[in-house]
Amino acid sequence: MTQTAFDFLASIPRKTIEHAWTRHDRGEVPFPWYEHTSGWQIIHCGHPTALYRYYAVDPDGATHYSSNGFGWAMLADAKRDLDERFGVVREMEVER
């Protein structure tokens, strides 16, 4: 077998990223909701033209909004804000 300059990569321990958020579809409703492994949820309000369409629910059932007092316009913003404000990690690194 011929060796290549990249054979050493196989011996290096790698970290992979496992996503901590799971998407759940609502059947006929086109707006999914997302659940974190810690129990947090990000829910779409269901209105197709809403400006601030996402809000969060913590494991105890309390509703949370963005720092502007409304929801989040983008799903990525909701995940980042929850990570920064409440320590809800967006992804977990796992040693493989």
Describe the structure.
The chain has 96 residues and is mostly beta strands. The protein has one helix at 75-86, and strands at 15-19, 21-26, 29-36, 41-44, 54-57, 63-64, 91-95. The strands form 2 sheets. A 5-stranded antiparallel sheet has the order 2-3-4-5-6, with helices on one face. The two termini are 26 Å apart.
Fraction in beta strands? 35-45%
Globular, elongated, flat, extended or rod-shaped: what is the shape?
Answer: elongated
Specify the biggest β-sheet: 5 strands, antiparallel
- Would you identify the regions where 5 or more consecutive residues have pLDDT less than 50? none
Q: What would the average pLDDT be, to the nearest integer? A: 81
Rg is: 18 Å
Class derived from helix and strand content? mainly beta
Q: Distance between termini?
A: 26 Å
How are helices and strands ordered from N to C?
A: EEEEEEHE
Strand order of the largest sheet: 2-3-4-5-6
* Secondary structure tally, helices: 1
| Count of extended strands | 7
Q: Roughly what percent helix?
A: 10-25%
Question: How would you summarize the topology of this molecule?
Answer:
Blueprint: E1 15-19, E2 21-26, E3 29-36, E4 41-44, E5 54-57, E6 63-64, H1 75-86, E7 91-95
Antiparallel strand pairs: 1-7, 2-3, 3-4, 4-5, 5-6
Keywords summarizing the entry:
96 residues, mainly beta, 5-stranded antiparallel β-sheet, two-stranded antiparallel ribbon, 12% helix, elongated
